[in-house]
Amino acid sequence: MESFSGALRLTDLNDFIGPSQECIKPVPVKKASKRGVIRLDDDGVLTQNSVPLQKQTISLTDCLACSGCVTSAETILIESQSVETLQRARTETHSSHVFVVTVSPQSISSIAHKLGIDYRTACCTLNKCLRADGFQFVFSSVEGSELCHQLSADELLNSCKMRHSELPAVKKPVLASACPGWICYAEKTQGSNVLEHVSRIRSPQSIMGALVKKTVSERKGVSWKDVYHVSIMPCFDKKLEASRPDFLSDETPEIDLVLSTNEAFDLWCSSGAGSSDTTSESSTSDLVFDSVLSEGGFPVQTLSGGGSGGFAERILHHVARRLNHTEPLNLTFTPLRNKDLLEAKTSINGTEFRVAKAYGFRNIQNIMQKIRHGRCRYDYVEIMACPGGCLNGGGQIKVEDNTDFDSVTQVYESVSSNVLNSDHKVSDTQLFLTSYRAVEKAASALGSQW
Question: 3-state class of 109 per DSSP?
Fold first, then answer.
């Protein structure tokens, strides 16, 4: 349970069921054709008319659709989103299957710090080892982040009633939806009044999920279902995101498996790759990764604006581009109550924009209270469940102290890019949209009156 973000481990969520307790989620049961007495045999098997009753199972998707718990699904989660699952898939799949992987820059930064190498060397080393391990395509989630920022800027302009597009206009302040820990918390505790502020744009991981299988299947001439997509992310909550029913196509997940940075690194080391010499790994080309949006490669880079992807900062830069603002943005984030709650304001063609970053549950609560009382003056808020943001995700390789965390941050920032790449042409924006809904609170089994 400790691996999940703080927002999923709050005591007031009442969402953890101990091993001795039972899940009460109703599941459909196929009725017997004839009525009969249900008996418990000596071996513990339930039978009806001497026929064993089918054992019902609760999937991770069932758990996410229920307000009773999230964290009690940890056992199911480990079974369905683990290194063992990947190893099983490799032995059970047909030779025509194509294994591909998307890697986050936060994960690469954590691995680079662990190995004592720079970011570029880590990218080249990881890319070489993943391909040697059977992955035919290696993508960077930065590409998904760029598309997410681009669409989020259009969404924000809609919400500010400054431009009309086919994207939905959510209520201000627009709240970032890239953090699944925060989204689970919002759906289970905050209700529709807060959810109507949440961005409808998919997260970078989910955007890559929408594009990768389609792209690879076209390039390799295989079925969409023959592509096995693995995502390496800095937090365990991303496993929950990939398991949402919204991100299925023809009942097949867009992302088959999510591994945390720590799990991926352990797998890497167990295969012997982690012990190889990494100092000489480099590439003469800057295009180390494959690209989902072009036939060429994708460069080694992270994104300016912080270790969580720079949503607040880079979305405003895209807004300025859309409004033909030619002057450099004067955007400086000022800490408020603590270093994980910051705000900034800037003027774009005479219109003032206010944005904020809120990391960790204490600061998320602060923003929720302001929204509830109509006192939130921001246009956009970058919300992340983990204190310190995604670089400090629960799935990262453990650091000893703040000094180590600062070193991971320095690795990430050493290749961060302030440059906005040309906008990607999006033919179907609906592909990159999702929705969120309040989960009705179910009665707890412990509260039942007998």
Answer: helix
Per the CB < 8 A criterion, the answer to whether 68 and 442 are in contact is: yes
Burial of 402 (0-12, 13-18, 19+ CB in 10 A): exposed
When mean pLDDT is compared across 98-107, 164-173, 185-194, 355-364, the lowest value belongs to: 164-173
**CA–CA dist 89, 108 (Å, integer):** 24
Contact (Cβ atoms closer than 8 angstroms) between residue 244 and residue 403:
no
In contact, 76 and 59? CB cutoff 8 Å: yes
Which of these, 301, 144, 300, lies nearest to 208 by C-alpha position?
Answer: 144
The position carrying tokens 């206009």 is: 169
Return the SS3 of 345: strand
- In the block, residue with structure tokens 């992310």: 233
pTM for this model (two decimals): 0.82
The interaxial angle of helices 119-132 and 105-115, nearest 10 deg, is 100
> Comparing 95-99, 162-166, 312-316, 327-331, which segment has the lowest mean pLDDT?
162-166
Three-state SS for 348? strand
Q: How far apart are CA 343 and CA 361, in angstroms?
A: 17
Residue 326 has pLDDT above 60, yes or no: yes
H-type alpha helices, 188-270: 192-195, 204-220, 237-242, 261-270
Count the neighbouring beta carbons within 10 Å of the beta carbon of residue 169: 17
Contact 292, 211 (CB under 8 A): yes
| Angle, CA of 201, 425 and 222, to the nearest 5° | 85
